[in-house]
Amino acid sequence: MQMNGMKIKGQLLVVNQEGLDDNSEKFVKTFDSSLLDVKFVNNRFFSETKISEKLKAVKGIILVVDVEKETTIETCATILNIRMLTNAPIWLKTSVAYTSIEREVFLNIGIDGFFYEGHSMKEIELTVLNLLKRMDSLKGTEDISSNKTASFSPMSAKSNIKKDRYNRNVHHYSNEKEVKEKVISISLDGETQTMIFDKTNVPLSNKQYQLAELFLENKNEIVGYETIYTTIWSGDYDIDKKNMVGSIVAQLRNKLERYQVQTKFIYNVPNKGYRFVVHEA
User: Fold this and answer.
1) Which regions of the protein are recorded as binding DNA (predicted)?
2) Residue 69 reports pLDDT greater than 90
3) In angstroms, how far is CA 220 from the centroid of its own chain?
4) pLDDT tens digits, 1-47
5) pLDDT at position 226
6) Domain at 167, CATH number
7) Long-range Cβ contacts of 101-104 (<8 Å, 24+ apart)
8) Which phi and psi angles does 51 have, rounded to 5°?
9) Domain residues for 104?
10) What are the DSSP E strand ranges found in 54-185?
11) Of 155, 267, 154, 253, nearest to 218 (Cα)?
12) Which one of 35, 243, 252, 262 has the fewest beta carbons within 10 angstroms of its own beta carbon?
């Protein structure tokens, strides 16, 4: 299938523990090889040497899961392991649909979508290529805009800061390290649940938005693990919850990187939490 305007080049990894079966062979033939090279691997692939170099060519990953043989916890561990290595989109493909609770868990740790038995090969192809096309388009737009001088109005920023915290553009900040070369305005839009970096809109999940809001409310200050946990999930915090906090922070970082937000804002503070470093305009 040829899609006009598509310039995607790279690999689509299909992680299948059961090996290459008849359905998998049909799956390979469905994709236009001029756009994506479909490669089948198992989980051991992500433990290979020089894996970072091998993943540079990967545009997306489809994780095939046998729900009768693999528990939700095992699948989560696989997803987290892959997500630590790459920001490429990840889809889960199963024969049986997950429950809404399971889907929310997977989405919270970085899954981008689900494919089930009822999805045709063509549906999967279109879903994958459509997202990759948009990501390529966003990257191209970001590359162009990065060559332009950013405009910024201090009076406008101050005016917007005074608005209600849930209104559009409630928070306006700029990155401390970039301020001398390029001012990057940061805004939160509660109506669309997006984080805005100049003209780049980054859509966030509920929990990611809560975290972004918490970081901006405590900009340049250490936000502890317990504070993050009780803000997003409520309930009592203990050391076992630290992984949940680390996961949601990693999701926000990955989301910013995926939308080509090049500047680093979130910094680890060992044994304490995180700091969102910005310079208020």
Assistant:
1) 174-278
2) no
3) 23
4) 444 455 667 788 888 766 555 566 666 666 666 677 888 888 788 87
5) 92
6) 1.10.10.10
7) 102/72
8) -65, -35
9) 11-143
10) 58-64, 90-93, 113-115
11) 267
12) 243
